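SAMPLE LOG
Freezer: B-3
Tube label: C17
Construct: single chain, 131 aa
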Amino acid sequence: MKTPGFGGTPLTSGAATTVLVDKRFWIPFVTCTCCSPLFLWLAISSGGAGHGDYGWAKVFFPYTMFFAMKFGSISPLLDLLAIVQFPVYGTVLGLAWVRNRFALGIAVLGLAHCVFELLCYVTASDAFRNP
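STRUCTURE (predicted):
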């Protein structure tokens, strides 16, 4: 039995192989993965060893910061979430591009990212103060 894939097309092992050889998949994946270390460095720097405002962390890693603000600290699990966030974005965008749904992928990821970023700035937290 075939399982429907992204965009309503059947997803088979041959389709998965086709996705991996299509350069449209790799362009967003490699771009997002290569940008991730820079974004991590900016986020860590904005923390200022606990004396910063975490501004860049909230901009680039809103999911991690939202849950850190809720729980009061950044746990190893949240560190992992930040590390994999942009490679996951790249994977989603790559699959969307191969399925001719790139604009939809950007819209969905962008909306989710912006909503959580906004939540970071409206959520009060003693440990992660807002500027």
